[in-house]
Amino acid sequence: MTRRPTGPGHRAAALILLALAGCFPAPVQLPIFGDCEEEETPGEAPAFAPTYHRDVRPILERECVSCHQDGGIAPFSLDGYDEAAMWGAVALGAIEAGHMPPWPPSSCCLELRHERRVAPDDVEMLRAWVDAMTPEGDPADAPPPPPPGGLSRVDLEVEMPAPYTPSPSVGPSDDLRCFLIDWPIDHTTYVTGIDVVPGQRELLHHAVIYAIPEARAAFYELLDDADSEPGWSCPGGAPQDADAYVGGWVPGAAAHDYPSGLGREVKPGSKLLLSAHYELSAGPAPDQSAIRFKLDDSVATPVEGAAVVNPSWLVGESMLIPAGEADVAYSYAYDLSAWLKLGKTVTVHDVALHMHEWGSSATLGVIRGDGEIECLLHIDDWDFAWQGEYFLKEPVELRYGDRLYVECIFDNSAGNQPDGGEPQDLWWGDDKEMCIGSVLISS
């Protein structure tokens, strides 16, 4: 059974795009985007016999070693000839299957910045090297290593208030924890770049950072104070404060400045909220991760966070995902006409999707006023552990009459239970499921 309900829009606190009451978007017949077909471009096999140092090492250093190194979160290292020769065939298989490097977005929507995909010619180079029994070659032939990624400058570094030793809270090996961190700047400033420095690279699997305004921070301070350990358990993160979103991090993703001219305002008195996902297969250890910021006192284009979500889903069991059902879809289209004045526009710079461990695929898009459909972000094989944010290579302008659209498909069948137990009915909740599209916008 497939459920594909839609619903009327109304006011939802802290969700900027749903800020006005009385909006009733027209129902959307699903699926509107259909199956997203990936375009595969074949690579060209090398006309010479590749060696590790000259040909393969640069590929691994550029695409793999940020995670696949001693002390990294990956299960084995590729940082060195012996390791690469041992695991080369396994790595090649994962790349050919599309599992590595982790890059969930489909390539059939808009182009994204900082894509992590191995070029087809590089795949053919790796295949030729593995087929040739992984010859080492001469270390003197190795080209210079790639320049280290990172922010162009670091103006502020803050860390978790105290070390925290994670323990399983969601399933047998995952812990999702939130931490409040004081914002020390005494004047309004703009975040123009962000990076996370894990205290335990083997444990921290992803992180999301919010700048909670002073007026809303008291709620989280109560949660923090009520827990005897640092922080508090937060399986759902802080979706009710999606407008406070600043940035995110996943292993292997190099830090980057925001695109030129963009900045996220943070006012004095704010609190940083770090939502951390720990993966504990390597065993527990105390973590005190840090966050680095590039800051500017003014920017050409201030951006703010916003979420696309049906407010009715947050009430009771209206977003029901029945036990045993493998294909349950929910969608919502928000009409911007009630929010945008005629002739005015907003621009989308950054996109993200959020579901939990029963999600199977999701789409964020625009339904234009003339009926044209534009896909902003599509993730065909959802993996909760690899959710992230994505800056668009070319920003998208939204006009009066356009609708922002989010679609989530869930699998609550017996074979898709994260804890291995029996399926249970699910609905909206921190420890159940969610369906949120997020954007960074300017007006």
Plain-language structure description:
This protein is α+β, with helices and mostly antiparallel strands and 443 residues long. It contains four helices and 18 strands. Strands 1, 3, 7, 8, 10, 11, 13, 16 and 18 form a nine-stranded mixed beta sheet that branches. Strand 14 (359-367) and strand 15 (373-379) form a beta hairpin. Helix 1 (52-63) crosses helix 3 and helix 2 crosses helix 3 (120-131). The longest helix is centred in the N-terminal third of the chain and has 16 residues, at 81-96. Residues 1-27 have low confidence and may be disordered.
Brief summary:
With 443 residues, this protein is α+β, with helices and mostly antiparallel strands. It has 3 domains: 16-30 and 303-442, Jelly Rolls (Sandwich), CATH 2.60.120.230; 52-141, no CATH class; 156-299, Sandwich (Jelly Rolls), CATH 2.60.120.310.
> Under the CATH scheme, which class of the largest domain?
Mainly Beta
| Beta strand % | 25-35%
CATH topology annotation of the largest domain: Jelly Rolls
Overall average residue pLDDT: 86
Separation of the first and last Cα atoms: 41 Å
Work out the helicity level: 10-25%
The major beta sheet can be summarized as:
9 strands, mixed
Low-confidence stretches: 1-27
Category by helix and strand content = alpha+beta
Name the helix and strand elements from N-terminus to C-terminus, one letter apiece. Answer: HHHEEEEHEEEEEEEEEEEEEE
Shape annotation: globular
**Structure summary, number of beta strands:** 18
